[in-house]
Design brief:
With 357 residues, the chain is mainly α. It is built from 14 helices and 2 strands. Helices cover 73% and strands 2% of the residues. 29% of the residues are buried.
Amino acid sequence: MVIFARIASGLLLGGMLLIPLLAPEAHRVTALVALVGLASCAAALGSPLFNAWFANLLPSGSTAAYLATRSIVSSTVGLVAMYLVGRFLEAVPGYTGYAVLFSLGAAASAASGWALWWIPDVTRSEDEPSRMPWHGVITVPFRYPGFMWFTLFYVVWIMASYVSLPFQQVFMMKTLGIPLDRIGVITGVSTLFSLLTYKPWGKLLNRHSSRTVFVLGFYISCLIQASYLWASPHNYLVLYPSALLAGLVNAAVGLAANNLFYEVFPKSEEKVYVVGFYSAVMGVAAFIAPAAGGYLAGLLKESSFTAWGLPFDQYRLLFLLTGILRLPSILLLRYIPEEKRTSLRDLLIALSGRGRV
């Protein structure tokens, strides 16, 4: 099912090449949205099974280090691919360039499905029921309180983050007037710093509490949100150290979230239903939060003001709102069970190099 979903998603995205050839101009946008929606549905169909499969294949005792290596590889490939795609479209503009790229994307999806075919299927056990009624699927996750607490925590965190996430580049372009090439440099700095810190964070998370890493990430992210108040069209250099901090936080929080997820992930035969519930909840949160952010941005459009010599416009207010909305998620952390219990002080000592990493 995972292989079928992955190949189907890639082929549907590749099918967008046919839109200019087959669809009337008035219906091309509708056809594009339909294909993207179908591709997303196909990918979502296989996501719960893949997560359950992946969880059973994870090495015990070094989960964080393995996830760090995986993140480094995927992020590096993505970064290089983005650069090569940009250079290719400059050299081969128009429909021909996009046709080649979408064809390569569809081929890559098929190749990844073929690669998965050779990985042992350890998702199901002989005792696992092959079918379960719908009401059972909905109630199963509530039998695992640790996983439900993590789900609630991460839903709050994601919704708080996604309220302002789509507007960061808009803020840099419209409010600060930063050229697109400089925005690319700022984004690249953040991504590069994430790549450089994945491995150290993986080693730290093997010995320290993921919950504590999240707390540290929360404090640093508050500094990042506040830095936007000092940025101006004549002085946006503050965004470069903020990009470094953002790369640090993204690596730390991403690995800590994965670490916690797989620690509270149920090992029973019902894991597929649990991760399906989780994927659905997270998908709804990721859909609602940006929409709510757009609505709030519209409401705050005429609410710009200056306080303590600092400007507050619609985008800066959204960034501050993200920091405020993340606070409840930090309070929910205490309810997530975790074997490792280390304090923020111990983590800071390890980061300073004076303690054992």
